[in-house]
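Review form for a predicted model. The reviewer records the input and the model, then writes brief findings.
Reviewer: anonymous (R2)
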Amino acid sequence: WGHLAVLASAAATKVVIGYPTINPRISPLWIAQERGYFSKYGVEPTLVFVRSTPLLMASLKSGGIPFAYGGGGGILNASVGESDLKILATFTGKMTNSLVVRPGIKTAKDLRGKVLGVQSIGGTNWLGAMLWLEHLELDPHRDNILIQAIGDQTVRVQALEAGKIDAAAVDTVFSKRLEEHGFRVLGDPRQSTIPFVGVDIVSTKTYIAAEPATVENVIKALLESLAFILTPKNRAAVLEIIMRRLRIADPGPADEGYQDLLRNMSRKPYPADGGLRNLQRLTKSQNPRVAEVKVEDLIDSRFIRKLDESGFIDRLYSASGSQ
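Model under review:
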């Protein structure tokens, strides 16, 4: 058996998968690694946290990283003048972040003249925050809302708690905890269906053409991981991974993250263009040339379609007992 394991390991294709944020929706990636789904399909992944979506897109384009788990709106800016980047699957196609404000802010109008913290200007979190402002009928320029690049989620939460910023778009796993400490949720994703690009799988046309089998195997591993997550009997195992990876001691917020996965992860994650078109409209304010990008050129749905039409996806859910 040891000899066979060595052979299998030697035959595995090494790939680097980058991801730009740390939240419960990264769980399919972590679970695929920890439960051996990548290995099952002959993939040996190195998971790399890249601190911003634009930086991750740049690493994709340069060939340094062949896969991005969570390209989000960054793919639009990165595709101006060319469209080598392709979205292979969309795990979440609607808004999943909550817009949280500090105690004392009661209504949307109270955000006028205040500071909104985002991960990076033009990045996915910025886009989500802008969509919330639009949803609340606020305009950053008209309403004098200062947008400040603060950093990733944990940093934004700390900035909120310290009073350095007045508002931030963060995951429900964090907003739940903030609410318990007197903060207010002005934008609740459970009560809206704003089209958005949250978690997608992105690669380049060049890599896809050179390594189609590897692309398919990475997607297979992630789909199996998704089926594991959506199977009720695996709840405790999924919670344990969320708590450990997010360094959360309290199972309450972790369970909120788990419920978020159940609500928002697409069982058949065909690449979605609705969210992209929504983001394109907003991104034009930062980069007018984004209007030139043809959203349909950024989508490659043949891998998901093949796995769906072949019955692969249905068999995963059937085998796991998930209905």
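Findings: The radius of gyration is 20 Å.
Further findings: Residues 1-8 have pLDDT under 50 and may be disordered.
Recommendation: see findings above.
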